[in-house]
Amino acid sequence: MPHHLIRKLEHFTRLSAADKTALQEIATRVQDFDADADIIREGDRPEHVHLVLEGWACRYKQLEDGRRQIISFFMPGDLCDTHVFVLRAMDHSIGTLTPVRLAGIPRERLLDLTARHPRITQALWWETLVTVAVQREWVVNLGQRSALERLAHLFCELFVRLRTVGLVEGDSCPLPLTQTELADATGMTTVHVNRTLQELRSAGLIILKGKRLTIPDLAALQAVALFNPNYLHLEHDGAHFDAND
Amino acid sequence: MPHHLIRKLEHFTRLSAADKTALQEIATRVQDFDADADIIREGDRPEHVHLVLEGWACRYKQLEDGRRQIISFFMPGDLCDTHVFVLRAMDHSIGTLTPVRLAGIPRERLLDLTARHPRITQALWWETLVTVAVQREWVVNLGQRSALERLAHLFCELFVRLRTVGLVEGDSCPLPLTQTELADATGMTTVHVNRTLQELRSAGLIILKGKRLTIPDLAALQAVALFNPNYLHLEHDGAHFDAND
DNA sequence: CGCCGTATTGACTGTAGTCAAGTGAGGTGG
DNA sequence: CCACCTCACTTGACTACAGTCAATACGGCG
């Protein structure tokens, strides 16, 4: 069932049939959440690693005075915190944006999986490091880019990430976010998000309607956003890690 | 020699004498760098993990048009990219801010160390996860905090981190950064950094002079910054990982 | 049809950026 | 030892990007 994860990991390494079977089997303890529900709250000590099977979620942090920052987005195929067990308590929360179906993977299960499947271990490492690289890019995005560039960059990133899990159709992809959520992710106000979206639309760079994003000319949007996809580390050259069966 | 690292790791777990000796011995291949030199450049494929022994460095990313964002600071005791080996090429650069003394730890050396010393493995995991947590907090800082809060927050973080490696004396610590560097880290202009520093000074929250930062009332500065140190995960409760010798 | 959350618009404010001109302090060389 | 040079810091006047407040429009769903 976790085909999105498998599809993503195959961008890094070729998995054997046995690897894939093993990955299929981790999707136990499936749970469903409504939209706008917390999966994990700041202060919790999570019991297992979560894998998003369907829907979108986000990592976020709320300041005492109510300001909220979305720190990252989770989409199908994404893992939440492969290694949290080391830390005592969550320093942020994870909440859903749409209805979400999750698999909860117990710690031992994951350890067992990686012990038996070295290529999966490598691939999960890659997954983790890319997540961190995305986090760094968000710092650049918030620190240096203008509102227009910022939204454009976010759209490029989400589009490319969705493509790696097979959720892009032609030049369009799902984008189930409200303008408020875009604002919380980009450090802008909803009003300014709204106006900036209009600017992107009238420049013909995006079509955004009915929770669906269309990018008629990805290269053009990338140019506006100063988007360089290398931080997503998608060049499939893990030949030296390939399965030989 | 890498006493700062040892001191830091002991905030998470109690290390045995053997653990400490092993850590002492990884500081081979010592290299010295001038200030404002690149240690690793975007696109490089680094050969070893770097440990900062003395001086300050930073992770940064430069956009095509020249804008630069400092993504994180490295101070004595910090490790650069414990697990880069999985990825093909660096997606950012690491450069010095002051003269820096580094130890280069070959991959095998690190694997060997962790294989023999499970507590060190745990402690390095903690180190890695805290680094990522810091990265997330920077997203919150850039996305939600005002200029004043942002600088105040950065100072709180640097102060607390320096304290964990023993570099705080009383209520003051080294701060070898120019206003330009502060600007690149906080996504502000140098002019605005300058004015905001004056505001912090005249509020009596900081004394900043001669590359030295004094914080007369840390609680007050924390309140202004909305700084909550929990993301640094310093509560020493790793008793269950304690060495028994 | 009517309700509620989301999106849109306008007018105004304010924080932060820009440009450009000084001032100051530390280091070097004559 | 001092002049000078450079880099960092400081200041002022002006601009502009983004935030605030508040009213209104839209759209999907019961």
From TrEMBL, chains A, B:
Highest taxon of the source? Bacteria
Ranges of residues in domain HTH crp-type: 145-219
Keyword terms, alphabetized: DNA-binding, Transcription, Transcription regulation
Pfam families in UniProt: cNMP_binding (PF00027), HTH_Crp_2 (PF13545)
Keyword Transcription, does the record have it?
Answer: yes
| One cellular component term from this protein's GO annotations in UniProt | cytosol
Any one GO molecular function term: DNA binding
Residue ranges occupied by any Cyclic nucleotide-binding domain in the UniProt entry: 5-78
Query: PANTHER family per the record?
Result: CRP FAMILY TRANSCRIPTIONAL REGULATORY PROTEIN, DNA-BINDING TRANSCRIPTIONAL DUAL REGULATOR CRP
State the name under which the record lists this protein. Nitrogen fixation regulation protein FixK
